Amino acid sequence: MLRLIRTKQKSFIVRIVFWVIIAAFVGTVFLVWGRGGDKGPKGSSAALQINDTSIAYEEYQSAYSNLYNLYRGIYRDNFTPQLEKQLNLPQQAIEQLIDQALLMQEAERRGITISNDELVAAIAKYPSFQENGKFSRDRYIQVLNYERMKPEQFEAGQRRQMLVDKLREQLQQGLSISQDEIEASYRKENDKIELNFVRLLPASFENKVKVTDEDLKAYFDAHQEEFRQPERIALRYLQFDPARYEKEITNFSNEEINRYYRRNIDLFEVKEQVKAAHILIKVDKDADDTQKKIRRALAASILQQLNEGKDFATLAKANSDDPGSASKGGELGYFGRGTMVAPFEKAVFAMKPGEISDIVETKYGYHIIKLEEYIEAGVKPLAEAIDDVKKGLRIEKARQLAYEKAMDAYNINRKSGDLDAAAKTNDLGIKETGLFDRSDAIDGIGREADITAAAFSLKEGELARPVQTTQGVFLFTLKERQPSRIPQLEEVKAAVEAAYRKTKAVDLAKEAADKLLTAALNKKSLKAAAKAAGFQLEKTGLFSSSYGAFVPRIGSSQELADAAFALSEEAPLGKVVFKQGEGYILISLNQTEKADLEKLDATERKKIEDRLLAQKKEKIVNDLLKKLRDSAQISIDPSLASDQPRR
After folding, report:
1. Of the options 3.40.50.300, 3.40.190.10, 3.10.50.40, 3.40.50.2300, the CATH number for the domain spanning 272-376
2. Per-residue model confidence (pLDDT) at position 45
3. Which of 204, 402, 497, 552 is most buried as measured by Cβ atoms within 10 A of its Cβ?
4. CA-CA-CA-CA dihedral for 359, 362, 366, 370, to nearest 10
5. Which residue, among 612, 599, 606, has the nearest Cα to 190 in the 3D structure?
6. Pairing state between β 48-50 and 543-544
7. 575 Cβ partners below 8 Å, 6+ apart?
8. Closest by alpha carbon to 103, among 9, 223, 23, 39?
9. Could you tell me which residues are beta bridge partners of residue 134?
């Protein structure tokens, strides 16, 4: 019952609290409004003060918690700490509370009230408070108790919600959408244009950049930090390979064996599988009914021979069209579910060992299947898995022994930092790496973040605490350290030249774009200017202003999109160069396609009217809120959020 109540009541609580999110508006909170006596984290009397309305800290916390739970329910596993930070829930909660307070104050100024009868009638309509279609006070109390909410708290929140709803209805009363507005909206969505455009990318100008030694020196002197070499180190190390110590692991106690088996029971899981053989009579994809009948008749004759006692393997070798299994007497070996096509799998897993199937049709043709063995899903008993258990236990104990030997070597030699002594005691050869920085793979070791982190924190002559990896345990010390430094120009000349070319290519691209625009204006044609200059002219394809800032094949740019829809057949050429990404764009109008108003039927008109009316209704509320905010006195406890609300 409680699960049912929870499911039901969650839906209406979220609906009440977050109706404003759906409507791009503000939310409702349920805790007692205007209580100013609760102390916040800094001893202040309220979390927020909006004109004469005080918002208690617990109200802010409730609003924040509701938002958190809502987004967590929407995004589920994708609701990461990064997304939570991006959504800025503290600020959202503050915005909701401020807007709610301002609307409440406006409703009171306008003399809007909610009678007790209206309140009772509204609450009684919630299905979660009903039994057999009628309001139940017991259910009402039970649901609220489950949410740890008192009736007076919920009723106060509901009353506030109804006041705001009445205010919205009053504001939106009499709003309508004209036929001209509907047609203008339809044109906006369906009037389309196609642009010609030229894209000039700096990368295509890099080979045109002239480079001198003086240029490179001047560029390097001005950008030395960009070429700073990171700190680099080299290591001397010992590798304690667990495989080396496996021979020392000879005995296992029953307790160790049982514990390993229990702890790694998933390793000994046996999946359901079968061992089967088949004879395939192949049917071509484009075979007609006559050909299919001939092939099926062949399969039927083979099945009859099997039923008469003929050897399956012999018939498979002589007749099967499956080249992979025919030579083996049709043997397919062991396989589990999900391996074969559905009709084949369904048939074989319904059979008993020793059975031969009827003819099974798949996309490959006709099959006759023989089930040789069936293995039920389960877990290998310890007696059957004992060899694997001992093998795994030996590897596990060898890893532990390798780590213990490395730790012994570390503890004995850490004061002296003598890796040679540790190598001699453990009969290991010392290995050395080349120089590497924090982002490099380590010679002979690879990318091991724990080793890299420990290595760069080492002091001269110090042994690092052993690091355990999948390759074994590593004990290491510094061989060499090269501090971060500014290199000589000659050391990084190629990189400096590449950076210089890239920088100067931007200037060349902009210069070429400006020249191309001048030529296009003179020729009154981007196409002609591009052809004369040897640049490729591209087309966007048709698109409408409903795309917003996005322009096909170019990208998102509100400035460019606005300019595109300001072009006309009389003035088709864009008058400026647009910076887009790393390149520069010039545009001109190629063609237009006007909306066909004859396609604007009654159904489409109604859809547009409903959408525009909803937008107009929301706008009138948002405009009021902006006006109220501009004249409101709002104070927020600094502990709540780093960002101040919009004003």
Report:
1. 3.10.50.40
2. 63
3. 402
4. -60
5. 599
6. unpaired
7. 517, 521, 563
8. 23
9. 131
Q: What is the DSSP letter of 246?
A: G
Below-50 pLDDT ranges, the chain: 1-44, 643-647
pTM value is 0.55
- Digit-coded pLDDT (tens) for 373-414: 999 988 889 998 999 999 999 999 999 999 999 999 999 999
Look up residue 132 and give its DSSP letter: T
pLDDT value for 6? 31
CATH T-level fold of 232-242+401-482: Chitinase A; domain 3 (3.10.50)
Q: What is the pLDDT of residue 175?
A: 94
Among 463, 461, 464, CA closest to 451: 464
**β pairing state of 472-482 and 232-240:** antiparallel
Q: What ranges make up the beta strands (E) of 287-416?
A: 331-336, 360-362, 365-375, 378-379
Is CATH 1.10.4030.10 correct for 2-174+631-636? Answer: yes
Instruction: Give the C-alpha separation, 203 to 409, whole Å.
Output: 56
pLDDT in tens, 315-372: 999 999 999 999 999 999 999 999 999 999 999 999 999 999 999 999 999 999 999 9
Distance CA 128, CA 138 (A): 11
pLDDT at res. 76: 84
CA 160 to CA 55: how far, in whole Å? 14
Domain boundaries, the chain: 2-174+631-636, 192-211+495-593, 232-242+401-482, 272-376
Dist CA 645 CA 249 (whole Å): 67
Strand partners, 234: 480
Write the DSSP string, 329-366: TTEEEEEETTSS-HHHHHHHTTS-TT-B---EEETTEE
Fold identical between 232-242+401-482 and 272-376? yes
Q: What are phi and psi of 251, to 5 degrees?
A: -120, 145
